[in-house]
Amino acid sequence: MLHTFVALVDDKPGVLTRVASLFRRLNVNIVSLTVGESEREGVSRMTIVCDAPEHAADRIRASLYKLEITRDVDELGRAEAVIRELCLIKVAAGPNSPHGQHSRSQIFELANVFRARVVDLAPESIMLEMTGAASKIEGLLQVLRESKFEVLEVSRTGRMAMRRGHHTSRVLKALGTPNGEQPAAYPHHPEPHEDLPNQFAEDDA
């Protein structure tokens, strides 16, 4: 199961190493990790997507809190957050491509359907930029390959996520939030005496 964590961490050398080492000790695979400036000076916003059992989320979050570089940690679900990914796709397009001279117009049509943008046009290739859910990006890549276009390069950022803003209970219910309740911005830190193992059991991996 994929979990998405948003962590606010100190902007200092070695932070990525500390976080990566923590997940290694927990025997949890990081699917994607994005880091950038946050709204706070000296604090970076880190979005971590990892593959772990459903019941492991609380232990991962608590372990992140144990790092002195961590300010806040939040786990986001699909119903309560906006999740996006940026992707650049370079596709062969030109006289020597499988579709010949018509390859450019066909790629333009696909880009229009998937709401992608053409950001570079070269004699033998076209580069597309697409922002959206991972499933939408996968859909475009699948159509390109099934249509026998040659995908030369793919660069993806991984998930970027942000919890939705404060809404009325009616809006939250329409968005699918359980009981129509506004979720807390960030959960409380775990109690100091809470037992937090450094590694999951083998059957949890």
Structural notes for this entry:
A hairpin with a 2-residue loop joins strand 6 (117-122) and strand 7. By secondary structure, the protein is of the alpha+beta class. The radius of gyration is 21 Å and the shape is elongated. Strands 5, 6, 7, 8 and 9 form a five-stranded antiparallel β-sheet that branches. The chain has a four-stranded antiparallel β-sheet with strand order 2-3-1-4, covered by helices on one side. The protein contains five helices and nine strands; from the N terminus they run E-H-E-E-H-E-E-H-E-E-H-E-E-H. It starts with a strand and ends in a 30-residue tail after the last helix.
What are the defining features of this structure?
Alpha-Beta Plaits; five-stranded antiparallel β-sheet; disordered C terminus; four-stranded antiparallel β-sheet; 5 helices; alpha+beta; 205 residues; 2 domains; 34% strand
CATH topology of the largest domain: Alpha-Beta Plaits
Strand segment count: 9
What separation lies between the terminal Cα atoms? 11 Å
CATH class membership of the largest domain: Alpha Beta
Main beta-sheet annotation: 5 strands, antiparallel
How many alpha or pi helices? 5
Strand-pairing-aware structural class: alpha+beta
- The CATH homologous superfamily of the largest domain is called ACT domain
Quick check: average pLDDT? Answer: 82
Report the radius of gyration as a whole number of Å: 21 Å
**Low-pLDDT windows of residues:** 182-205
What is the compact description of this entry?
By secondary structure, the protein is α+β, with helices and mostly antiparallel strands. Helix content is 25%, strand content 34%.
